[in-house]
Amino acid sequence: MSTTALFFTLIFVAFAILLSFWQRIGLEKDIMIGTIRAAVQLIAVGYVLQFIFQLKSWSLIILMLAIMITVATLNARKKGKGLPGVSWRIAVAITSTEILTMGLLVGLKIIQTTPQYIIPISGMIIGNGMVVSGLFFNRLKSEMETRREEINVYLALGATSKQAVSSVMQNTVKASMLPTIDGMKTVGLVQLPGMMTGMIVAGANPIVAVRYQILIMYSFTSAAAITAILLGILTHRLLFTKAHQLIDHL
């Protein structure tokens, strides 16, 4: 794509701004900020990746992954606002997911141990973990608001804190995994996924692109399960005081 063609894509942004102004939605400023940030961030990442790909330094690869995990954690923790210690729990869940998933991909020699494979695939896995974490805490707060009295009844009847919220945690884990599972059911029918589309546009054989997309979708399923279940294990104690009483609010 030429620079001129890339410049013309701003037409789509202008169209969104005009519609927002016309309907008085008030998102013109947010759209402009998002447009500028997206361009600056992506261009910066492009140069950084080019530098890392040339050096092939593992220390730089690990640093890049650490930055990705940190940004993902900071973004996902917004959904868990009000819960103490939520940041390190999200970081542990996403990091564990990344290590386990990439460990299998590399250990089974499914992908090559080069920056060109490690960084993009890790980025997608970490991003998926971030989304799952956000969904987890959104659903957890909703469940706790609607089932507070039920949980207190369980506690009054002698249930432990873990037993009292077991159903809540099961529903929360399930809800945070479902979008990934639903995505697998419709992939290729409703839309062509980003990685597959990118490879095809870049000139790759469609069958090769499909194979890599299958790899990503299957990895996402495992990553979603690991992230959600780990968060469930690490988070349930945050809902109670040291005396095993339900906290006042989330």
UniProtKB/TrEMBL annotation:
Coiled-coil parts of chain: none
Cellular compartments annotated: Membrane
Membrane topology note: Multi-pass membrane protein
Transmembrane segments: 6-22, 34-52, 58-76, 88-111, 117-138, 187-208, 214-234
Keywords attached to this entry: Membrane, Transmembrane, Transmembrane helix
InterPro entries linked to this entry: UPF0014_fam
UniProt KW Transmembrane keyword: yes
A GO CC term attached to the entry: plasma membrane
Record flagged with keyword Membrane: yes
PANTHER family: PROTEIN ALUMINUM SENSITIVE 3, UPF0014 INNER MEMBRANE PROTEIN YBBM-RELATED
Family indicated by similarity: Belongs to the UPF0014 family.
Protein name as annotated: Membrane protein
Organism encoding this protein: Mesobacillus subterraneus
Lineage: Bacteria, Bacillati, Bacillota, Bacilli, Bacillales
